[in-house]
Amino acid sequence: MELCIRSDFNDFYDSICSDKGTLYNRYINKGMQRGTAIRYLQSIGVKTVEIQQVSQISSMYANKVVVYTDTIKHESKGKRIMTLDEAQSLYPSYLASVFHEDTNGITLKYLQIGTKRYRLWFKKDIESLEKGQLYHIEILDDYNSRAINVPIYSIDYIMTKNGALATDLNEVQNLEKLGMQNYISAEQVVKEIINFYK
């Protein structure tokens, strides 16, 4: 079984792929924009943060907001924390969500690789949008889900007093950046991708 990857970034399993076989198109800028992705997650029953234009957010509900300055970027890029007043002055037509200050800096990334599933727990500074330091990983039972119809993806969550709220869907998760080569082999990743497309 062979896998051919067309992509705009490198990952740890690319070295065992070839220029023929099952084709996997893996482009960062081909995924859903943030607003579309959040609405899609909501449509399949995932609880998410609420996203709307900065100009529509009321000061009754938010002192600080997360403004999405680039709705395609992932991994903490393309967004900024600022006061609602600043956001309304600088970015009134941009998408934003209320900044939750009750997270204790705990974030969760749900990761799917074919049928393989993981929960990655991170601890970060509350005022940071970086993913922070990985401190725990759970390996979940295999599950063949087609709700998000790509072989590898992740969903990022913040942990609030109202439970986990999804903030992002990444349809082309870079596994090496997460250190997943320590938990799954390149051969297993390739096998999972090929089986997904069968």
What would you note in describing this structure?
The chain is of the alpha+beta class and 198 residues long. The protein contains 3 helices and 11 strands. A 5-stranded antiparallel beta sheet has the order 9-8-7-10-11. It has a 4-stranded antiparallel beta sheet with strand order 3-6-4-5. β7 and β8 form a beta hairpin. The longest helix is centred in the last third of the chain and has 12 residues. The radius of gyration is 18 Å and the shape is elongated.
**Low-confidence regions:** none
Strand order of the largest sheet: 9-8-7-10-11
Helix content: 10-25%
Radius of gyration: 18 Å
- How much of the sequence lies in strands comes to 25-35%
Biggest pleated-sheet summary = 5 strands, antiparallel
Overall, the morphology is elongated
Number of contiguous helices = 3
Mean pLDDT: 91
The secondary-structure element order is EEHEEEHEEEEEEH
SS class: alpha+beta
Key terms:
198 residues; alpha+beta; 5-stranded antiparallel beta sheet; 4-stranded antiparallel beta sheet; elongated
What is the element layout, followed by pairings?
Elements: E1 3-7, E2 22-26, H1 34-43, E3 52-53, E4 64-68, E5 79-83, H2 84-90, E6 95-98, E7 106-113, E8 116-123, E9 133-140, E10 152-160, E11 163-170, H3 186-197
Parallel strand pairs: 1-2
Antiparallel strand pairs: 3-6, 4-5, 4-6, 7-8, 7-10, 8-9, 10-11
